[in-house]
Structure formats: structure tokens, C-alpha cells
């Protein structure tokens, strides 16, 4: 064994303690550090010829790279829809690496059963029934890809084509209908050979809405009668967290033949709050569902879950036929359900957080974030230099400059807020107007944090 590696092995408890000290120090100072580090990164160093050992690696990381990492795990990082990592999920994530389980098959480990238990808990959390099975994937993009892949196989079933064997070309054109699809839907269509140009946008409801007009959707389905299609419904759009009427869309399945995929990347968490649960009424009728866990469940990147009613079709798409992997019989190994063979035990951080805080704890995070988003929205309306682009429906505040909201000026506002170190937000365009999005999904965020963000916005827009 290499001498440095052998020395690290002999000192492993000390090295883990050193890493623990760095992690504890960073976590304790997270609320006070700059939220983003927009400066230039250090130049690239050459590959070391001789190892410095774990102590040396930790020291070099702390010196060269840690100062430039963002505070994305902190309470005022409002870009994208980024949760943090609850204390229990961090513990689970560390143990995921320590145990380093191989989930390609059962492999003499109980790890797959822990994942199955976690999937069942999540299914119940989001109000899905026993007809839905699920598996962990990296994020919403892969979850949407898996759902559409199963939908593609379903379309082949309707047309007498085995797409997994004959290819997408044998299927012919397959259209995907959606009102406000996330960009990952078009990406998934590209990956699956459906083609980005087969995404058909259906008219939205009037009155500053991002929700699909169900009557217009029915008209689009009528035009395509006799040919299977996929409908992607939204449970929480990116800009305004608008929700399609899932129950009304599901009712259309009685008259039209389509696969219903629901993108509930973060909006599905509305199910946890009695005040907002009606927004996801009808989710259980979906044929496939996407939920991103490193958003509102606040587990470390990367973790999402996908659900479907047609596990048989899922296995048809993703099974890996090899003597050393076994056949997907009975309860299939997860390698037969997702694009990955090699995958870490993403379920463990989620399992830890669900056990530690339960339904009630995660409901409190959701409801607090919604209240804080409303508070920021009211504050934005009160600032003379800013205006809302849409109502605050759940946890995202979409706003812009009150005067001359050009791309350049809005980008300048974003840079000024970032440079203050107080907050970070991502740009968007809504209704043709450049703006910013402030997304609340972090378990740490408080009213005091929201006031700091408002002061930063006031200073940058004044």
C-alpha cells in the first residue's frame, strides 16, 4: 500500500475529526458569510506527483477553494429553487459515503430495502397511492426524463411498437402537450429521441397565469384523436408557482388517450400544507410524477424521486440484461428502473431527515417559506424602485424594476445584490419582461433574513 495512503488509514479517526471541524465551522458561519463569491477563481494547479495526504488535501482546499464557494446552503440564497441540507440529512449523507453501498443489486445488503421504505414514505407524503412505485434519481431533469421515457413506451404499446427494442423511429412522431413546460422537458425529449420540436405549447389561462387552459388542452387532444400523446402538467411553475388543474386534466383521460406526466419538482410539497394541499388535488391520477428532493425536502444535492403507475413499462425501458446482474423478476433491483447502474444510496439522507423531523417538521419548513415569500413580496411592492411581475402564489417572488426594466438594468440590479453579499437571486423573463426570481425553500430562512434581503434590494434599486 502507498505509504501516504497507509498513514491516512492508520489516522482515519483523526482525519474524520479534522473534516468534521471544518464542516462544523462552515455550518456555524453560514448565516454570516457572503451568499455568493463572484470573484475570480485561483489558477489551476498541476496534478500532484506525490500525495500530500488527507491533511494536506484538507488544508489546500480550505486555502484555495473554500473561500470561493457560495453560501447556497444558507438562508438567503434565493436563486433557482435551492434547499439547504438539514442537520439530519447531512449526517445521513456522510454515512452514505462511509457505508458506500453498491445499489446495482441486492448484493448482500439491506440498502435497497431502506430505499424502498423511503420511497413509500415519500409516496404517502405527497398523497400518492399504492399504485405508484418509485425510485431515486439525481434531480428533476432525470426524473422528468424517466417519466417521459415510460410515457414513450406506453405510446408504443398503444401502437403495437416495442420502442425499447425497435427505437423511437419505429414509433413515429409523438407529441408532448404542455402549457408552461420546464426547460428540462425539452431536454428530456431530445435525449429520448422524441425531438424538441415535438413539444406543443397549449394556451394558458388569461389574467397573468402560467396554468394551462384546460379547454384549450381538450381542443388539442381532440385534434390528435387516434394518436397517443403525452401531456405534461405542472404542479408549480418556475416563475410564479402556478398550478395546472390536475383533477380537470385527469378527467380528460376518460375521453382521450394520453399519458399524464406531472412535473411537481417543488410544487408537490404543497401537499404538506393544509392551506395549499388543494393545489395538488389530482396528483394521484398521474401516470408519472417528478419530485425534486434537494429542493424543499432540504437534502443534499443530488436527490430526486420519480413515481409511475406502470413499473412494467419502466422495466421494459431501463432493464439491464446481463448474467451478472440478474433478471428483473418480482421486485426489480433499482438498476432496472433508472438510467444508472452505479448509484449512491441517495435515499439515506432523505430517510434520516424524514425520521428526524417527520411530516410535521417538513410541513413547518414549507409553511414558513411560503409566509416569508409573501413577506418579501409585500416588501417589494412597498419599494418605489421595484414592482411584482406576478402574485406571490407560493414560495417564489417574481419582480422587476419599476422603471425601464431592460435586460441590462435588471442584470445590474442582480449584480448589485450579489455584490452586497446579502442575497443571491436568478434572472428570468416573465411576460416578455426581464426580472428576478427569489425562491424560498431553505430550512434556515427566517424573518430576519427576509428583512436583510429587502434592505439589499432597497439599496440596489434606490
From TrEMBL:
SUPFAM superfamilies, alphabetized: PLP-dependent transferases
Presence of keyword Lyase: yes
Keywords attached to this entry: Aminotransferase, Decarboxylase, Lyase, Pyridoxal phosphate, Transferase
A GO molecular function held by the record: transaminase activity
InterPro entries per the UniProt record, alphabetical: Aromatic_deC, PyrdxlP-dep_de-COase, PyrdxlP-dep_Trfase, PyrdxlP-dep_Trfase_major, PyrdxlP-dep_Trfase_small, Pyridoxal-P_BS
Region (Disordered): 30-51
Keyword Zinc attributed: no
Cofactor: pyridoxal 5'-phosphate
Family: Belongs to the group II decarboxylase family.
Name by which UniProt lists this protein: Aminotransferase class I/II-fold pyridoxal phosphate-dependent enzyme
Organism of provenance: Streptomyces musisoli
Amino acid at each position: 500500500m502507498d505509504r501516504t495512503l497507509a498513514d491516512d488509514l492508520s489516522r482515519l479517526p483523526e482525519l474524520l475529526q479534522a473534516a468534521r471541524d471544518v464542516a462544523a465551522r462552515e455550518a456555524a458561519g453560514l448565516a454570516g458569510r457572503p451568499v455568493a463569491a463572484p470573484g475570480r477563481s485561483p489558477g489551476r494547479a498541476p496534478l500532484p506527483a506525490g500525495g500530500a495526504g488527507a491533511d494536506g488535501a484538507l488544508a489546500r482546499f480550505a486555502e484555495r477553494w473554500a473561500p470561493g464557494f457560495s453560501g447556497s446552503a444558507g438562508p438567503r440564497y434565493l436563486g433557482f429553487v435551492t434547499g439547504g441540507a438539514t442537520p439530519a440529512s447531512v449526517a445521513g449523507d456522510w454515512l452514505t459515503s462511509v457505508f458506500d453501498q453498491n445499489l446495482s443489486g441486492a448484493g448482500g445488503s439491506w440498502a435497497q430495502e431502506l430505499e424502498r421504505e423511503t420511497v413509500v414514505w415519500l409516496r404517502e407524503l405527497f398523497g400518492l397511492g399504492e399504485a405508484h412505485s418509485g425510485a431515486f434519481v439525481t434531480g428533476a431533469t432525470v426524473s422528468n426524463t424517466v417519466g417521459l421515457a415510460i410515457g414513450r413506451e406506453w405510446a408504443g404499446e398503444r401502437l403495437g411498437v416495442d420502442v425499447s427494442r425497435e427505437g423511437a423511429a419505429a414509433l413515429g412522431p409523438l407529441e408532448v402537450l404542455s402549457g408552461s413546460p420546464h426547460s428540462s422537458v425539452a431536454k428530456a425529449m431530445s435525449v429520448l429521441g422524441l425531438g424538441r420540436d415535438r413539444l406543443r405549447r397549449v394556451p394558458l389561462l388569461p389574467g397573468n397565469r402560467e396554468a394551462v387552459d384546460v379547454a384549450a388542452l381538450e381542443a388539442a387532444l381532440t385534434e390528435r384523436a387516434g394518436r397517443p400523446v403525452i401531456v405534461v402538467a405542472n404542479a408549480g411553475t418556475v416563475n410564479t408557482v402556478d398550478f395546472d388543474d390536475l383533477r380537470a386534466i385527469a378527467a380528460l383521460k376518460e375521453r382521450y388517450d394520453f399519458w399524464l406526466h406531472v412535473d411537481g419538482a417543488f410544487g408537490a410539497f404543497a401537499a404538506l400544507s393544509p392551506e395549499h394541499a388543494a393545489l395538488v388535488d389530482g396528483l394521484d391520477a398521474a401516470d408519472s410524477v417528478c419530485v425534486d428532493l434537494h429542493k424543499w425536502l432540504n437534502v443534499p444535492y443530488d436527490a430526486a424521486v420519480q413515481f409511475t403507475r406502470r413499473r412494467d413499462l419502466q422495466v421494459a425501458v431501463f432493464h439491464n440484461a446481463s448474467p451478472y446482474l440478474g433478471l428483473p423478476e418480482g421486485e426489480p433491483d433499482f438498476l432496472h428502473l433508472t438510467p444508472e447502474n452505479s448509484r449512491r444510496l441517495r435515499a439515506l439522507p432523505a430517510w434520516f431527515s424524514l425520521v428526524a423531523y417527520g411530516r410535521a417538521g417538513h410541513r413547518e419548513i414549507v409553511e414558513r417559506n411560503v409566509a416569508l415569500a409573501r413577506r418579501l413580496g409585500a416588501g417589494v411592492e412597498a419599494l418605489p424602485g421595484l414592482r411584482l411581475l406576478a402574485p406571490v402564489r407560493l414560495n417564489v417572488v417574481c419582480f422587476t424594476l419599476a422603471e425601464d426594466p431592460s435586460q441590462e438594468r435588471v442584470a445590474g440590479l442582480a449584480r448589485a445584490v450579489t455584490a452586497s453579499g446579502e442575497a443571491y437571486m436568478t434572472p428570468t423573463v416573465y411576460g416578455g419582461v426581464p426580472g428576478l426570481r427569489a425562491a424560498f425553500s431553505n430550512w434556515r430562512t427566517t424573518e430576519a433574513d427576509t428583512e436583510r434581503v429587502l434592505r439589499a434590494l432597497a439599496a440596489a434599486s434606490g
